[in-house]
Write a structure and sequence with these properties.
Two copies of one chain form a homodimer.
Chain A: H1 8-14, E1 25-35, E2 38-41, E3 59-62, E4 65-72, E5 79-83, H2 103-109, E6 113-118, E7 132-134, H3 140-146, E8 150-151, E9 154-155, H4 165-173, H5 184-198, E10 201-206, H6 210-219, E11 223-229, E12 235-237, E13 256-258, H7 260-265, E14 270-275, H8 287-308, E15 312-317, H9 336-349
Parallel strand pairs in A: 5-6, 5-10, 10-11, 11-14, 12-13, 14-15
Antiparallel strand pairs in A: 1-4, 2-3, 4-6, 8-9
Helix pairs in contact in A: 5-6
Chain lengths: 353, 353
């Protein structure tokens, strides 16, 4: 067993290293794996050995998740499993668009095992059991607005992003398409398999990943807590789903009704829900903001519903605790270390280790 | 600057860590970025602030590469930039299908800076400026055969893979589709941008990545050497492309003609070409083997052409140096550390550092 020791002089020189300014971290183990998924078989008898282009009887292994994991030396016991949102991959948690450390590096430095997924039919987990037509539709500005960066081309005054040419280029290029239909059951099945390999941990979701996050917690007892960053939806007991609130956004916030047994599972683990800044209290024609007003309202209703049934759900609207200007992308905003500290403080309060 | 020191007792306990058996490595810096790419703009005047679904005037940033990089403490100067092959992503270089260290970890332990790319229109670099229809066509066995694992369902006797259920599951799931048409110019433009960020280094390609590898070396003076693992094609001076050899494979091996100036660039940097085992000398109806017979022949012709013009190209057929049974996936075979050692030995001979 060889170890790598760093002389003080080298360490001092590393202090001048550019870009992310990550502190050196000793990685005990790292790697990647595919988790879950299914197999489809083409009908007919296999004949590919003599006729290579004959697909009869051949298989397709698809609908799995891809995970890259890193285990720092002397890691906390609790695994952190990260699930991205709409149009993103695991990249969403990596280096920020302006070249700073993302949550991957930040939580690694804090001593956590990190498991960063690409959901089925996305990114490196692109092999899908369903065909898909991908358009090449220009819509960068739709997302710029919807992610509360600003109103194109003008960022909001206090917003926590550089929004310069480099930032925009990297931010827009993070987006990557579905290679098969979005399917929450497929995703949560794969994420259950991810937790099967990662062990007990906290499921950290973003945006559209929120729904599969709730479902994964329902399916897997390895999910000991959830941190949902600006989730897009919430699970209520069937028959208790709040009415869909009117909004100027093209994306209304609808709750999802689930069997009571499933809902009650979400009352048995600690849950933290975070929303960032610039979310208005009143309806606004600025649809990219109104989109989040209705989600924050739904979040309040959900936290109440969970806690009424004996749960442990905490909702934090970051400006309420003095953290201002966050966009939908809390994990990569300029003050992302503050956001990570809020998350870690909560994890320590809940005694995950 | 904080450093993390590992007590001997912890190191000893880490020796028992499962799975990949990676030695702990101190990472000075790691992260990811998108490199290169283009922007397309929808015609018309932008109106998305009031009408969110109006795509007029919106942009699409696409056709970039995704890169995950790691810089170990006290790294060699030479960057290693890895470009995967057909149907693969950067995963191809990561943990092997049977859970051992891949080239990412192996070369990291050897002290190299590693830059692992997803090419444009693949994996996490899925945002494409061209639309794409993705079929869900079962063809695992086509690739099992074509990658010289065996003749489905029977692996070859001496082959360097486990080929058990776990291996097969992980191996097949590594495949991920194109999200836009395969385009060597698009790929090599992005890889040139990758080298622009990585600095001087060796371009390590696999299979279909070979073509873009040659082209990247032609475009970028940062490419100081090439290691091509079982490349699918070779660049010859226009008018000097060898005739396409007859084969039982559905994938004939055609050389590519390029302007003499471009070809000569490939004579000015050291090049190593590796092929693995089980490649027959005579034509065979086993098309998955014949596929590589004609490529190995083309490799010989190419190395001769390069060296005749003053180049420094080395071709190694691994059984010739006592390394047997390798499949097309040298980087993840059971003896991948031996393959990595061959590569490192060559790099040291060529004095890259």
């Amino acid at each position: 067993m060889k170890s790598i020791w760093i002389a003080a002089a080298v360490m001092a020189s590393l202090a001048a290293s550019p870009a992310s300014a990550m502190k050196p971290v000793t990685i005990a183990d790292q790697g990647s794996f595919m988790a879950g998924g299914t197999v489809v078989t083409a009908p007919g008898a296999y004949g590919g050995n003599t006729n290579p282009l004959n697909q009869a009887g051949q298989t397709l292994h698809g609908d799995h998740a891809y995970v890259f994991y890193q285990i720092p030396a002397q890691a906390h016991n609790t695994a952190l499993v990260f699930l991205h949102g709409y149009g993103q991959s695991g990249k969403t948690w990596e280096t920020t668009p302006d070249g700073r450390d993302g949550f991957q590096n930040i939580f690694l430095e804090k001593g956590y095992k990190t498991y960063i997924a690409d959901q089925p039919r996305r990114g490196r987990a692109g092999r899908s059991t369903e065909p898909q037509a991908i358009g090449a539709v220009p819509d960068d500005q739709l997302w710029y607005n919807n992610f509360r960066i600003g109103q194109w081309p003008q960022k909001f005054d206090n917003v926590q992003v550089r929004d310069d040419a480099v930032w925009r280029d990297q931010f827009f290029r993070q987006m990557t398409p579905d290679t098969g239909a979005y399917d929450e059951a497929v995703i949560s099945d794969a994420m259950k398999a991810v937790f099967g390999k990662a062990g007990d941990g906290v499921c950290i979701t973003h945006s559209q990943g929120g729904g599969p996050g709730w479902r994964t917690a329902i399916k897997s007892s390895h999910v000991k807590g959830i941190i949902a960053l600006e989730p897009g939806t919430f699970f209520f007991p069937e028959g208790q789903v709040p009415p869909v609130e009117e909004t100027t956004s093209p994306f209304p916030a609808a709750g999802v009704g689930v069997p009571m047994d499933d809902f009650m599972k979400l009352t048995r683990i600690p849950v933290l829900v975070l929303y960032g800044g610039n979310i208005p209290a009143e309806q606004t024609p600025v649809w990219g903001l109104d989109n989040w007003r209705v989600r924050l309202n739904l979040a309040k209703a959900w936290v109440d519903a969970v806690n009424r049934c004996g749960g442990d759900a905490t909702l934090i609207y970051l400006p309420d605790i003095g953290i201002y200007g966050n966009t939908h992308f809390l994990m990569s905003d300029l003050n992302n270390r503050d956001v990570a500290d809020v998350m870690e403080r909560w994890m320590k309060e809940k005694h995950f280790d």
